[in-house]
Amino acid sequence: MSYTRTTTALIIFAKAPVAGSAKTRLIPALGAQGAAALAQRLLDHAVCIGMEAGFDYCELCTTPDHSHATFQRLAAGYPLVITAQGAGDLGERMHRALSRVLADHARVLLVGTDVPALTPAVLREAAAALDTCDAVFVPALDGGYALVGLTGAHAELFTEMPWSTPQVMQATRARARAAQIAWTELAPVADIDEPADLVHLPEGWLA
User: Fold this and answer.
1) Domain count, the chain
2) For residues 38 and 114, what is the distance between their CA atoms, to the nearest angstrom?
3) Strands 183-185 and 57-63
4) Residue 113 in contact with residue 63, Cβ under 8 Å?
5) CATH number, domain at 168?
6) Can you give the pLDDT at residue 6?
7) What residues are paired with 140 via a beta bridge?
8) What is the DSSP letter of 112?
């Protein structure tokens, strides 16, 4: 299937929900199995909202590979393209995925799977913002961001960044300003990384 450069694409970055390697910072609160179960629920949520947003193309970009049963179940149930993130730090992997998908689409959004506050409406708002700017972000309350959307690859936003620190969004703003990239930011959201973040889960998710 071919796509024109007027379309919007969504990339969901996902890690296999394997006990002991998924959501490891939550293991002290939930145990290895509980953290993996939550990772799977967050992944399911991200795919569901991606589908409901109604974009032209949706990709599940996975690590360490796409053989996990959860990835296969989602691919069987939804019109997803499954790809591998490949090697490199987070910035390298994100930039590679965005560059690849931007070859066929005018606007690309990239999200992770740890933000239950994201909704189809937020995704559509982010896509619409790219009609008037080069980039859009949904900042995270911990200093990172939960969504990045671009109309161009902009490698400077991803190279040698302080990933997994509270300085990510601040550094991203500085890079965008220096490169004269016009960007907008939507309302910040909480992501689920640490035990203290569990208060931001929807009611009943830990039942």
Assistant:
1) 1
2) 9
3) unpaired
4) no
5) 3.90.550.10
6) 61
7) 189
8) -
The predicted-structure confidence for 73-115, as pLDDT tens digits, reads as follows 999 999 999 999 999 999 999 999 999 999 999 999 999 999 9
Domain extent at residue 104: 8-189
Taking the C-alpha atoms of residue 44 and residue 41, their distance in angstroms, rounded to an integer, is: 5
Residue whose pair of structure tokens reads 């982010």 in the numeric block: 126
Interatomic CA distance for residues 30 and 6, integer angstroms: 44
Q: Both tokens of residue 134?
A: 């080069």
User: Is 160 part of any domain?
Assistant: yes
Residue 17 is assigned to a structural domain of this protein? yes
The answer to whether position 196 is within a domain reads no
Closest CA to 138 of 187, 183, 172: 187
Q: Is residue 207 part of a domain?
A: no
Q: Provide CB contacts within 8 A for 74, sequence distance 6+.
A: 43, 44, 47, 60, 80
Angle subtended at Cα 101 by Cα 96 and Cα 105, rounded to the nearest 5 degrees:
145
Instruction: Please give the structure tokens belonging to residue 85.
Output: 């993130």
Angstrom CA distances, 83 to 8, 11, 14, 44, 59, stand at 18, 10, 10, 17, 7
